[in-house]
TrEMBL record:
It comes from Pseudosulfitobacter pseudonitzschiae. Pathway: Amino-acid biosynthesis; L-isoleucine biosynthesis; 2-oxobutanoate from pyruvate: step 1/3. This is Citramalate synthase. One of its GO terms (molecular function) is 2-isopropylmalate synthase activity. It comes from the Bacteria. The keyword Amino-acid biosynthesis applies. InterPro entries: 2-isopropylmalate_synth_dimer, AIPM/Hcit_synth_CS, Aldolase_TIM, Citramal_synthase, LeuA/HCS_post-cat, LeuA_allosteric_dom_sf, PYR_CT.
Length: 537
C-alpha cells in the first residue's frame, strides 16, 4: 500500500523562543537548525527577520539545509500595498525559499484588535500571499485563532483562509492560538474545512498545549485529513508550549495507524538520535531535561516496581510499548525500598556486574538500600550512588583516594566597588597513593561571580587528586537539588547532584546529612568516584 506523505514544520527557532526564559543566540539557532535538518524536518522556521537583531543575523548566516528554510512575518498592514510594506519587505529580504505569514481569521480579532473591516482583512491576506507567490516563494499562511474564529463565525473564518488559498498559498495552517480547543472539535472543524473546498494536502495544524492536548489535537487534525504538522522540539512555546515534535515524530513513525498510513522525512536511523537532540536543546537552554517526557525522558523506560522488573527481564514488551533504542533512549531499573531481587539483578547486569542469584550480597544490598532510604536517601534517580553502594557490598569498589578532612568558610564582605559580595573558600586534604595532598579553592568564577560553597568544594577536591586529576578536567555539575526530609529537630537534608562529562555521560548522586554542605560533599564524592570507575578502573 502506498503511504501518504505527511510534512513536519518546526517552529522551535521562532515559537520556541517565545517560551518564558528562553532567548537563543544566533550561534545557538544555527546549531539547532542543523540538528533539525539531520532529523529530517521538512520546514525550519528560522524566526522573524527585521523583528530583532538575532533573527536577522540568523538568516544572514543560515546554514545550507535539506529542509526548506522559512522566514516568518505578518500580512501587510492596512492602507498600504504589499510592495510598499517595509515590514513585509524585511521578511522577503531574508531570501528564504518559503515564507510563513500570520493573519487574523477570527472576526472578533479583526474588528477589535486590528480595528479594520472584515473585507479589508481578507483583502490584506489575499494580496500579501499573492505578493509572496509573485516573488517565487512558497507561501504558507498561519490562520491565527482559526478554531475560535470558526466557532464564532464559520463563514468568515472560511472566507479568510479561502482568500489565502486562492491567492496561491501552498499551506494553510489552522492555528489553535490560545490552546483551548479540544481534539474532537479540532477534528470536526478540520473535516469541515476540507469539505468546504480546501484540500487536506494543503492544510496544516498548529496547536498549543494549554489543556495538555496539543499532541492529541494535532493527531485529530491528521485523522481528519490535514497533511502538515507544526510543532517544536520538547514542546517549547509561549505559555504552556506548542505541540511537541519529540512526542509526535515517534508516534507517527512507530504507532498505528500512522506508521502504515503515512511517511515522513524522518528515517529510522535519524529517529535513533531523537533523545540526543532533545537533550542537546535542553543543554543549550541550560535546563534539566524533563524526566517524565514521553519517549525521550530519562524515566520514559524506567521500571521501579519489582513485579514490573521481573517481567521486563523475561520480555521487555510486557511493560514497554516500544524498544527504547528506537528513539535513542535506554531502559532503567531504579533501586528503591520497593525493590526486589529481580530489580536488583537486572540493574546490576545493566552496570556490567554479573551476580549469581544465590549470592548473599544481593540480600545485603537490598537491606542497605532500605535502611538508607529510611534515613533520607533516595536511589530512584541517584543511580550512580546506588552503583557505588552495590560495588562496595560486592567487594568491587576501587579505593582511589581517601578524604582525611575538609573545611568550608563563607565570608560576606564589601569589594573594591563598595558592593556586598559573598565568597566561599574550601580546603580539602586527601590521601592518594600514600601521599597527603592539600588543595584550596575559592568559589569565584572567571566573571567575578560567587558560585557558592559546593562549587568551591568541587574545585578543591578535583584540583589535586594526584594521577586522577586529569580524568576530572571535563567533569561539571549541571544540576543541584536540595530536599528537607522529615521535620522538626529530626530534619535532615538530601542533596541530589547531576553531573556530566565531555563524553556526554550524565549521572546522579545523592548525599544526606543534617548539614547541607556535608550532604553536598557526599554527593560530590560519589560523582567523582563514579567517573573514575568509568575512566580508570
Amino acid at each position: 500500500m502506498t503511504r501518504e506523505r505527511l510534512y513536519l514544520f518546526d517552529t522551535t527557532l521562532r515559537d520556541g523562543q517565545q517560551t518564558q526564559g528562553v532567548q537563543f543566540s544566533t550561534d545557538e539557532k544555527l546549531t539547532i537548525a542543523r540538528a533539525l535538518d539531520s532529523l529530517g524536518i521538512d520546514h525550519i522556521e528560522g524566526g522573524w527577520p527585521g523583528a530583532n537583531p538575532t533573527d536577522s543575523a540568523f538568516f544572514d548566516a543560515a546554514p545550507q539545509t535539506r529542509a526548506t528554510m522559512t522566514a516568518f512575518g505578518m500580512t501587510k498592514r492596512n492602507g498600504m500595498s504589499a510592495e510598499n510594506d517595509d515590514v513585509l519587505a524585511a521578511v522577503l529580504n531574508a531570501n528564504t525559499p518559503a515564507v510563513c505569514l500570520v493573519g487574523k481569521t477570527h472576526d472578533f480579532h479583526v474588528e477589535t484588535a486590528l480595528g479594520i473591516t472584515l473585507a479589508e482583512n481578507t483583502d490584506n491576506i489575499a494580496k500579501s500571499v499573492a505578493h509572496l507567490v509573485a516573488q517565487g516563494r512558497e507561501a504558507i499562511f498561519d490562520a491565527e485563532h482559526f478554531f475560535d474564529g470558526y466557532k464564532a463565525n464559520p463563514d468568515y473564518a472560511l472566507r479568510a483562509i479561502r482568500a489565502a488559498y486562492d491567492a496561491g498559498a501552498r499551506w494553510i495552517a489552522l492555528c489553535d492560538t490560545n490552546g483551548g480547543t479540544l481534539p474532537a472539535d479540532v477534528g470536526r472543524i478540520t473535516a469541515a474545512v476540507i469539505a468546504a473546498g480546501i484540500p487536506g494536502d494543503h492544510l496544516g495544524i498548529h496547536t498549543h498545549n494549554d489543556t495538555e492536548n496539543a499532541v492529541a489535537c494535532a493527531l485529530a487534525a491528521v485523522d481528519a485529513g490535514a497533511r502538515q504538522i507544526q510543532g517544536t522540539l520538547n514542546g517549547l512555546g509561549e505559555r504552556c508550549g506548542n505541540a511537541n515534535l519529540t512526542t509526535l515524530i515517534p508516534i507517527l513513525l512507530l504507532k498505528e495507524p500512522y506508521a502504515s498510513r503515512f511517511e515522513t522525512g524522518v528515517p529510522p536511523e535519524a529517529l535513533e538520535n531523537l533523545t540526543r537532540i532533545s537533550r542537546m536543546l535542553d543543554e543549550i537552554l541550560n535546563r534539566v531535561p524533563q524526566k517524565q517526557a514521553a519517549f525521550v525522558g530519562a524515566s520514559a523506560f524506567a521500571h521501579k516496581a519489582g513485579l514490573h522488573a521481573s517481567a521486563i527481564a523475561k520480555d521487555p514488551t510486557t511493560y514497554e510499548h516500544i524498544d527504547p533504542a528506537r528513539v535513542g533512549n535506554t531502559r532503567i531499573i531504579p533501586m528503591s525500598n520497593q525493590a526486589g531481587q529481580s530489580n536488583l539483578r537486572e540493574r546490576l547486569t545493566g552496570m556490567g556486574l554479573a551476580v549469581d542469584r544465590a549470592d548473599p550480597a544481593l540480600g545485603r544490598i537490598l537491606d542497605r538500600i532500605k535502611t538508607r532510604e529510611a534515613e533520607g536517601y533516595s536511589y530512584d534517580t541517584a543511580q550512580a550512588s546506588f552503583e557505588l553502594l552495590a560495588r562496595e557490598e560486592l567487594g568491587q569498589l576501587p579505593e582511589f583516594f581517601d578524604v582525611k578532612r575538609y573545611r568550608v568558610t563563607v565570608e560576606r564582605r564589601k569589594n573594591k566597588y563598595d558592593k556586598m559580595i559573598s565568597l566561599s573558600e574550601a580546603v580539602v586534604v586527601v590521601k592518594v597513593d600514600g601521599e597527603k595532598l592539600l588543595s584550596v579553592s575559592e568559589s569565584m568564577d572567571e566573571t567575578g561571580s560567587d558560585r557558592g560553597p559546593v562549587n568551591a568544594l568541587s574545585k578543591a577536591l578535583s584540583k589535586d587528586l594526584g594521577r586522577y586529576s586529569a580524568h576530572l578536567e571535563d567533569l561539571r555539575l549541571v544540576d543541584f537539588k536540595v530536599r528537607i526530609t522529615q521535620g522538626g529537630t529530626e530534619a535532615v537534608t538530601r542533596v541530589i547532584i547531576d553531573s556530566e562529562d565531555g563524553q556526554g555521560r550524565r549521572w546522579s548522586t545523592v548525599g544526606v546529612s543534617a548539614n547541607i554542605v556535608d550532604a553536598s560533599f557526599e554527593a560530590l564524592l560519589d560523582a567523582i568516584k563514579w567517573k573514575l570507575i568509568r575512566d580508570v578502573a
